[in-house]
Amino acid sequence: MNRRAQSHVVGVALLLGVTALSLAALTATIGAIVDENAAGVDADRVAADVDAALAPAAVTGPHSGRVAFTAGRLYTEPRTVRLLNDSGVVAAVPADALVYDAGSHRVAFLGGAMVRGRPGNAVVTGDAPVAVSAGTVVVGVAALGGERVDVSGDGRLTLSTRVSHDRTSMPRGNWRVAVETATPAAWERYFGRFGASVDRRDLDGDGDASVVASFPGERRAHLVVHRLRLEVYGSA
After folding, report:
1. Residue 138's pLDDT band (boundaries 50, 70, 90)?
2. How far is CA 122 from CA 31, 106, 176, 178, in A?
3. Does the model's pTM come out above 0.90?
4. Exposed, middle or buried, 25 (CB in 10 Å: 0-12/13-18/19+)?
5. In this structure, is residue 62 part of a structural domain?
6. Domain count, the chain
């Protein structure tokens, strides 16, 4: 075989090798895009399913709903919502959060609000637990209660609740609300809608920050706790 023929063979082999690498890279890219899109669809579905299954302000008594996802993890994590005045903590509600985590997609139900996005890039959506008027602040907290949840993979779950409501009225004073959260920036923006000043504090020394919102002026405060007593059936 002459040199020209040898060069031709080597050139074809190199071309085939480059083509194979390009196809592999393209396949991996397409696979990543498909996985990312699937995770986004799952996150949207989980947010809608959880919102329908956990409707604390609209339900009293037994209630249930289905939650489905093809990948990712659904779990609870301990979180506390606190009501404070000038004397300190007046009420501490162990609300806990129900979190769906799938890579770059995250959904968290906390206190009655839905938080979409990962820490640093999250937003509070849907019905949030605080309402403010001229002389009143109403704090409505959905407290999951019940069992811990930790399910990974392909989940087909039923979320069952038995909802009751406790309401406590407080005298006029300078009131603050503190939400313990993994996405503090989202809650700071949310409280900013009400003209509240905010700061971050670790109120119980566990390393988890709370966003503390201070509402200007003296107001009456009403604390409404929606106790869900969450139970989960099904598995991954």
Report:
1. very high
2. 26, 9, 22, 18
3. no
4. exposed
5. yes
6. 1
